[in-house]
Amino acid sequence: MGRITTEESIISLLKKESLQTIDVAARLGIERHTAVKYLETMESRGVVCHDIKRRAKIWSAASPNIVSALKKNDPLIKQFTSILDDVDEHINIQNKNHEIIWKNKFARNDMLRCWNSAEGKIKWNSSKKCDNCPVEHAFLTGKQLFKEKSCHGKNKKIIAKPIKDENNKTVAVVEIIKDRK
To answer: For domain 6-61, which CATH number applies: 3.30.1330.10, 1.10.10.10, 3.90.1170.50, 3.30.1360.200?
Structure first.
């Protein structure tokens, strides 16, 4: 059997509990600045992440999910999104603030707009949610929703599907908008 690397030791520690940089260094018997180098390198690869509490960085094992992979331009995700770019349906991924963090090519080029006549505001292709928003429903319930909606005389089918982390917490929602015939 081979030796356990420093990175493997760090992951093992951080899977058990979140730790400050100085605690990681102390438990591994390495200098604090060496621990920082390892942690920052591992963070750039998405293996660990940190929160800041007061003036301390609190490190933990990263929870891999599609949202973090999209942000890191993961090669596998690039390949997957390239496939979705060829689909002739409006597909986007939204975070909890209803910010669109990714759109396929069709959605980026689509002139799809839905107006709320009472407010005169654009609802689709924006970060504002519509009434009875399927994406909001998916965040609240953790379940997918299918909804029919009329927009400029065209019937649309909206599908909102939650993206969950390993703890079954909804971290984003995929919204698909199709023309209904």
So the answer is: 1.10.10.10
